[in-house]
Amino acid sequence: MVTTQIPDGLPKPQRKWAMTAIAIGISVAVLDGAIANVALPTIAQDLNVNPASSIWVVNAFQLAVTISLLAFSSLGDLWGYKKVYVGGLLLFSITSLICALSDSFWTLVLARGLQGFGAAAITSVNTALLRIIYPGRLLPRGMGTNALIIAVAAAAGPTVAAGILSVAPWPWLFAINVPIGLTAFILSAKFLPHNPVKVEGQRFDVPSAILNALTFGLLISCIDGFAHDIRLYILIPGILVMLSFGYFFIRRQLHHPFPLLPVDLMKNRTFSLSVVTSVVAFIAQMLALVSVPFFFQRILHLNEVETGLLLTPWPIATMISAPLAGRLMSRMNAGLLGGIGLAIFGAALFLLGNIPDHPTNFDIIWRMVLGGIGFGTFLTPNNSTIIASAPPNRSGGASGMLGMARLLGQTIGAAAAAIMFAVFPTNGMRISLTFGAGFAILSAIISSLRRKKT
Q: What is the value of pTM for the model shown?
């Protein structure tokens, strides 16, 4: 095995342009994952499909991301993170144009699937690129900035979608991605650094990529099936098939010198605890994100505008706290800092679930702010630890695992919320928030088990 030394970050002027390229690229990928939901009723009506079928406009995108994320992160380690990122931006831009020009439902679904592959390529190496853009001492700050960008994009999604739909038809939701994506493509091609790590003997493992796609595709589908009350005689065979593919996939990874699923990194206690912390924390986050809008509208009887405004303090607080947490990492153990953030997050969810029946706006806002502060305080040190605890030549695998942990946690959380709503039809929102608080405290405990400073 031969590796070359990675330079300790980029000089400041190039670093700013590189981060601009990253900011635009990851923003458009995150935004697109959120804005399509708002337009589903309109798309269903225009393309003459029922509401249940229209969900495939979202599912095709999410499924493509799920089955390809680890494969693209492996290609990043092999080919270079810049090549994968730039290629993903180009694919994303082209398929956005196809989405905008789609004149049939299944053309749109196919284009959304291909668009999901582009988004997976972008997000799979996003954090790995930060490791070669920033000097080691500034990596937590870079991770905090990245978390801020993602939080802003996610929060802005529904607002941007509503703004576009107020003046233009739904195809413009996808057409707007084309100039933004091409701008990010040009900046990335010019300013992003090439990945200097080269490992002799490493090859892309096609069988592992296929097994990965089948395993995680079926896993996410089975979890989603529970949420949508799919009958057990359909789900159980799917679970058994998923477990079979998963067995052969894991077995192959354990004996492969360059595993697609980074089981080699999971032997690192700090890395594995950080990944588990992330999965459990995102379960809590999604339990809250699904429950709170329903809670506001069905329990507190707020309208859509009031709901949107009262949700806003959460991402704003995350935007502020995530970069600050990056600065605190130089003074505090990352596991302890993340644990404190998750404990605050858990307390906020518990307080939201037990809010008075007739709260004032202030009662809601300070709880939402507390939740955003807690989650932002966890996000930066945990993500930084996942990336920094991996060897330089495995940064792509670590970045992919970070994204997969988030995706798996959010899927489980959304399914759990749906189950709570079904089992407790009159009080499911409050119970979901209480369960979310429990998961947040559990993740705080797991985070605090880490002792090594990064």
A: 0.78
